[in-house]
Amino acid sequence: MARRAARSHPRLPLSVLVLALLIAGCGPIGRDEAPERVAACLAGLPAPVSETRGLFVEPDDGRAPILEELAAARCTIDLTIYLISDDATIDALEAAVARGVQVRVILEEHPFGGGGDQPGSAAELRAAGISVRWGQDRFRFTHAKYAVIDARTSLILNQNLTRSSFERNREFGVISTVAADVREARTIFDADWEGRPPSGPFALIVSPDNSRVRLGELINGAQRSLDLYAEVVRDPAMLAELTEAERRGVSVRLMLTDENDEANLTAATRLIQGGVDVRLLDHVYVHAKVVLVDGRQVFVGSQNWTATSLDANRELGVVLTEPLLVDRAEAVFASDWTLGSQQTGIE
Predict the structure, then answer these.
(1) What is the CB neighbour count within 10 angstroms for residue 296?
(2) pLDDT tens for residues 245-289?
(3) What is the chain's mean pLDDT, rounded?
(4) Tens of pLDDT along 260-270?
C-alpha cells in the first residue's frame, strides 16, 4: 500500500491524536446519532426514482464515482473497509460529518502482514467525529470493502480506499440502488457493527456465509467461458473447479499481476498444467477480484481465491447480469488480455 502523501491542510496536533488513541484502547470512539434523528432524516429523503446498478473501473474512472456518492450523502454513511488512507476520501468523510451526516466505519484492526497504519487512520477518523469500530474477532480478517449511503445506495468494491487503489491498481466497483442489494448490505453492516451474526440467507455473495458455494456455482455453471482477474489464487478446491471447467470444454482465462509470491506462482503453474490460459500484467497491479461467466454475468467483490477469504473472513460481493455492465467488464478484460504476457509455465 502506498504511503499517504502530505495532506492539503495542517495535520491534527499530536496531542489530539494521542488522546484519541488512548481512548481507542477503551473501546469504540465517536457517537452514533440518536436513532430517532437518523430515522427522521432517512424518512425525509425522497424515494429512489429507480433501481439501477453501475460499474466503475480503476484506475480509469478515478476517485469521482466514490467521492460523488459520499458527497451526496444526507443522513448516513456506513462503511466497512480493510485499509483507508486516501486523503481525498478521508476529506469527503470528514466533510460529511461537518454537514451533519452520521458516519460509521468498521475497520480491520490487524491487516495481513501488518500493512496500513490502522491506529493512525482510526484516530484521524475519530478525531473528526466519525464512529469507528474494529472488525469482529470471529472473522480472521474484515476484508470486505463496501458502503451503504442513506439506506438508499450501496457501493460494493474490490478496492481499498488508498491512493494506489485509485491510481495504480486494476479494480472494479459497483454502485447500486437496487433495494435488495442495499437492504442486505445494510443488514450485514448493522449486525457486524453490533457484534452479532446477520440473518440470512443472502443473494449477495458473503463470506464466511456462502462465498464458497456461490462462487463454485458460478464456475460450475459456465458453459462457454470463464474470464477471471485475481490477486491471490491458492484454494485447492477452487483450483480444481477451474481446471475441471477447462476439461469439460469451457475456455478459462486468468489474469494475475506480475508481482507474485511463490505460492501464487505454484498455483498458477498448476492451472496452466490443467489447460487454463494465464497472463501476467505489468501495466497495472491486479488487485481485482472479478469473474466473467459466458459473457452474461460478472462477479465483483472482495473475495480472494483462498480458504481464509472464502471461509473465515468477512467479505462481500455481487453478481451483475445487466448487459451494459457485463459488456464494460468484458471490454476492460479484453484490453488487459492483449497487454498481458502469455505464460506456458511459471517459475
Answers:
(1) 15
(2) 999 999 999 999 987 788 888 899 999 999 999 999 999 999 999
(3) 90
(4) 788 888 899 99
To 5 degrees, how large is the angle CA 286–CA 289–CA 293?
Answer: 120
- The closest of 110, 107, 136, 134 to 197, measured between CA atoms, is 136
| pTM (2 d.p.) | 0.89
CATH no. of 14-200 = 3.30.870.10
Q: How far is CA 332 from CA 106, 119, 175, 190, 256, in A?
A: 31, 36, 18, 34, 14
Neighbouring CB atoms inside 10 A of 100's CB total: 11
At 8 the pLDDT is: 38
Q: Which amino acid is at 192?
A: D
pLDDT digits (tens, 9 = 90+) for 161-181: 999 999 999 999 999 999 999
Q: Are strands 169-176 and 102-107 parallel, antiparallel or unpaired?
A: unpaired
Cell of 295: 459473457
d(CA 298, CA 57): 13
Give dist(CA 130, CA 46) in Å, integer.
25
Domain with CATH 3.30.870.10 in the chain: 14-200, 206-343
Q: Which residues have a Cβ under 8 Å from the Cβ of 212 and sit 6 or more positions away?
A: 237, 238, 310, 311
Which amino acid type is present at position 81? I
> Which stretch of DSSP H or E encloses residue 131?
strand 131-134
Domain 206-343, classified CATH 3.30.870.10, yes or no: yes
User: Is the model's pLDDT at 125 over the cut of 50?
Assistant: yes
The C-alpha cell 500493512 sits at: 115
